[in-house]
Write a structure and sequence with these properties.
This protein is α/β, with parallel strands linked by helices and 366 residues long. It is built from eleven helices and 19 strands.
């Protein structure tokens, strides 16, 4: 079987023919892979930068890939032959209460497995077997952008968690009963930044998105269609603060230098939340005693955001479907390109480095 494999913590990636008996399978439902999504986490594994990545127990390689769409090969337990499905990528420890009720995003032992990342073979292979409990249907109408349901599920969970935290504030809604007066700053215009922007706008919240450059052509379509504000942060954020004021929520979605946190913290409003989504790959953040006093005195929250589970995948599918109506031009641009697994050099290239102007790249296995 053809598969894309890595050997963390070492850098490197290769397309190999792997004996199916050497692969970890997770159930009895046979699925043929149609598409794999390529994301920043895959590239961090490939380039040896994700320190938490580890091999499955007793193996010397890991099949990469946690974003996939496949086609069911044999009818089984509510799924019919030909159904398109997406796997939930994190699997629980089997011990703690949260994992036992399907919420391994809040695993208490830390012994969960994550496909293509931590201790579990991923889905960048020709086929796999899975448990129906971990599969979400993807309608045929979403075959073009459905691969985004996995990263969007993480964003859905993140926004849900932020809203749960903000229930601590007696009145967080606006005087018209909506959240339309609230402001969000999203730092980073990669795929996660784009998905956060679209989801917050769908909920009626005012959105600013920033990067250290002017917006490209694809981003300009997003800004105009979804009425999102853009800020070039090449000269830091002081000008933005003077023009717009402070933000109720700030999302760090760059995965860049950890020192960025100290630059964006002054922009946070009282009772606000900083959501940390990206994994920093360098640097350090230093918060002085004055900033800590302000955090305490103004009820500010730092919140780690990671991993959506099956309910969030289902929400993601619904939102992707709605965006094809709400933001049709943007939806057409969400998938930057699709590369066939037979184009080996190009596949290895996109697994190592991001293409200019990229939102989401797909690998086609069909």
């Amino acid at each position: 079987m053809k598969a894309i494999i890595v050997k963390p913590p070492a850098a490197g990636v290769q397309i190999s023919n792997v004996n199916e008996k050497d692969l970890s399978n997770y159930g009895y439902l046979k699925i043929r892979t149609l598409y794999s999504g390529v994301c920043g986490t895959d590239r961090e594994v490939v380039n040896g930068k994700l320190i938490l990545s580890e091999l499955p127990k007793g193996k010397d390689f890991l099949v990469l890939g946690h974003e996939a769409i496949g086609k069911v090969e044999e009818s089984y337990e509510g799924f019919s032959e030909g159904d398109m499905v997406m796997p939930v990528n994190r699997r629980g420890c089997g011990v703690c209460k949260n994992c036992l009720v399907g919420r391994s995003d809040f695993c208490e032992t830390g012994n969960f497995r994550e496909a293509g990342i931590v201790g579990m073979d991923g889905f960048m292979r020709e086929q796999w077997y899975d448990d129906p409990r971990y599969l979400v249907r993807i309608p045929k109408s979403l075959e073009d952008i459905g691969i985004l349901a996995q990263p969007l599920a993480d964003v859905e969970k993140s926004v849900e968690e932020i809203f749960e935290v903000q229930k601590r504030v007696p009145i967080w809604s606006c005087d018209d009963g909506t959240l339309n007066c609230r402001k969000v700053l999203i730092v980073g215009t990669g795929p996660i930044g784009v998905l956060f922007s679209l989801l917050f706008r769908t909920l009626g919240i005012k959105v600013w998105i920033s990067n250290k450059r002017e917006p490209n052509e694809t981003e300009q379509i997003l800004l105009e269609e979804a009425r999102i504000n853009y800020y070039n942060s090449v000269n830091d954020y002081e000008e933005l603060s003077r023009k717009v004021g402070k933000f109720d929520v700030i999302i760090e979605a760059t995965g860049a230098d950890a020192g960025l946190i100290t630059k964006i913290l002054p922009l946070l409003e009282r009772n606000g939340v900083v959501g940390l989504f990206g994994f920093p790959v360098s640097g350090s953040a230093t918060i002085d005693f004055k900033s800590i006093q302000q955090i305490v005195h103004a009820n500010k929250v730092f919140l780690g955001l990671v991993n959506g589970q099956k309910p969030h995948f289902q929400l993601a599918v619904s939102h992707l479907a709605s965006w094809k109506t709400l933001y049709p031009k943007t939806s057409k641009n969400l998938i930057t390109d699709t590369v066939s697994i037979d184009e080996e050099k190009e596949v290895l290239k996109i697994l190592k480095e991001k293409r200019r102007g990229e939102i989401k790249m797909r690998i086609s296995w069909d």
